[in-house]
Specification:
By secondary structure, this protein is an alpha/beta fold. The chain has helices spanning 46-58, 102-109, 177-187, 201-205, 215-224, 241-254, and strands at 2-7, 28-32, 38-41, 64-68, 92-98, 125-131, 136-138, 141-148, 154-160, 165-169, 192-196, 229-233, 258-260, 266-268. The chain has a seven-stranded mixed β-sheet. A seven-stranded mixed β-sheet has the order 7-8-9-10-11-12-13. Bound molecules: zinc ion (2 copies).
Amino acid sequence: MRIVFRGVRGSLPTPYSENLEYGGNTACVEVRSSSGDILALDGGTGLKDMGVSLIEEFGRKGFDVEVLLSHYHWDHIQGIPFFDPLFSSGNSIRFFGPGPKLEKVLAGQMGAPYFPIDFYQTGSRKEFIPVESAPFTIGTLSVHPFGLNHPQGATGYRLESEEGTVTYATDLEHGDEQFDRILREYAQNSDVLIYDAQYTPEEYERRRGWGHSTWLEATLVAGDADVGQLVLFHHDPSHSDSDCDEIAKQAGRHFPETIVAHEGLIIEL
Ligand SMILES: [Zn+2]
Ligand SMILES: [Zn+2]
């Protein structure tokens, strides 16, 4: 399995020189399975670059992409209208996401007056699969969705394959006993845990109820769930590269196998 971080920022893109080492694109993680399945975890602005690289790799011959959405806040869907493979008739794209309004939400963000091209005029074949709590399979991957504590709700995904297990958990706020327990259950023994670490513990005190967590909580979850590698993700837009370096240092003292995600980071399992 190959994991490529295409967008690691939370909330909104930050194309500023002081944070470009970690990157300014919003949430998108590409996952490739050993059997050649192509997945995007979320469709933030990082999805644009993933599309460009897929076209480079496959040219215009058709391919299939599975887009798994955690929820529909802008920073998780805004790259979809700019995802080149959406426009080619040979491609087939399956969208997975929570709730029955999945298709309506995606079509709506490209409806007038928000976007010049209607969603249904893009050439790819599309399928919409509402995600509930039941596990499902994509090629050789088994996918286990679970609920996260976030305003209007969000879904995490545990991906299991023969090569290893990756758990994607963004956006979420810790502190709810039931959600905290579910998260630890689903993250248990993951080789890689990708976790919403938007705030420092100090910042979090002023942002309670906003639906995000901290690097400190990330290290506690990683320890409790016995994960191999913790990846801090969904960085606050105000965090500069030096802030992220500092977070890496501090989090590493609590859980040594911690990486602060940056655009272009690749993890192979
Ligand atoms: Zn977000
Ligand atoms: Zn959100």
